[in-house]
Design a protein that fits this description.
The chain is mostly helical. 74% of the residues lie in helices and 0% in strands. The protein contains eleven helices and no strands. Helix 4 packs across helix 6. The two termini are 45 Å apart. The relative contact order is 0.14.
Length: 302
């Protein structure tokens, strides 16, 4: 009986604390409209990219599927391009591919950058100095120039290969940012206490530092995704992207190759640019909201 009665007591004692935390997060979400707005924009884009292929005919992205250079109408809400492809279908197909490049490259850059950042910020001596030196040297290299050189040497560029190429040069900024945060947290009182309790360096990193930096790691991931998408679009506009895959950057590339601006085909280049701008606005709002969550000094008070 005593054990049976103890279990509900424990549940009841934890329930108010759980609900208190939930109310705190909900209350903070209401006080952080920036994060909510950014999540809403990105959610709408992701849901649109996931559901629209089931509604819109994928064959509309094929060459000569329709008449060429048709302006927006009821049949083609975003018009058609000079290849006879429906622009709405191109946007539907191209947006997930562009986001895919950003997610793959951003995730890889976060893994590499956070690993080196924790090592750089936490460990002193030759290990931290070596990582810091490699990071500083890599930051001086013009990333876009290297990306152009590497992408031009790859015979067949795919979405995955482009993401990997971008990730290999997108990690230094993440490493420096996370390393500086870890360096400041290393001097706080809980780190010497953890050492006194017999915790190793890796245990302190995974059990003490990393949980406290989750919001900052999230903001770093969003920033890495934004940087990767920006690099990908830059390469694609230069014609170094995946030629056989429909992305937002490649849509802009084909529009400028066929002089859409001069010919007055504004719907060809404006549609992908509006989606790109909206995507970056959503990512910026999420990054700003997570930064506010990670930095107590920026939090709004009730």
């Amino acid at each position: 009986m005593s054990a049976a009665s103890a279990a509900p007591a424990t549940t009841e004692s934890r329930s108010p604390e759980t609900w208190s935390r939930r109310r705190e997060w909900i209350s903070y979400g209401r006080r952080n409209p920036t994060l909510i707005a950014g999540l809403t924009i990105i959610t709408v884009i992701v849901v649109f990219g996931l559901l629209a292929p089931f509604i819109i005919d994928q064959d509309a992205t094929r060459t000569t599927a329709f008449s060429k250079d048709l302006p927006p109408s009821l049949d083609h809400p975003l018009g058609t391009d000079s290849f006879g492809r429906d622009m709405l279908a191109l946007i539907v197909v191209g947006t997930p591919q562009t986001v895919k490049i950003g997610l793959i490259a951003g995730f890889m850059a976060l893994i590499i950058g956070s690993t080196l950042g924790f090592i750089q910020g936490f460990y002193r001596g030759p290990i931290g100095t070596s990582v810091r030196g490699v990071t500083d040297v890599t930051l001086t290299i013009p990333a876009l120039l290297i990306l152009i050189t590497v992408a031009s040497q790859v015979r067949q560029v795919t979405v995955e290969s482009m993401a990997i190429i971008i990730a290999l040069l997108a990690w230094p900024g993440t490493t420096r940012a996370i390393g500086s945060q870890v360096l400041s947290m290393r001097e706080r009182a809980f780190v010497p206490i953890a050492r006194f309790n017999g915790m190793s360096g890796m245990e302190i990193i995974f059990k003490e530092l990393m949980p406290n930096m989750l919001p900052y790691l999230g903001a770093s991931f969003v920033a890495a995704v934004s940087t990767a998408i920006l690099f990908a679009i830059g390469l694609e506009v230069l014609g170094l992207g995946p030629q056989t895959t429909n992305t937002l950057g490649m849509t802009i590339y084909w529009s400028q190759l066929h002089s859409a601006v001069i010919r007055g085909l504004w719907w060809w280049w404006l549609s992908p640019m509006v989606v790109i701008v909206t995507l970056f606005i959503g990512l910026f709002l999420i990054s700003h909201g997570l930064d506010e969550l990670a930095n107590p000094r920026l939090r709004r008070r009730v």
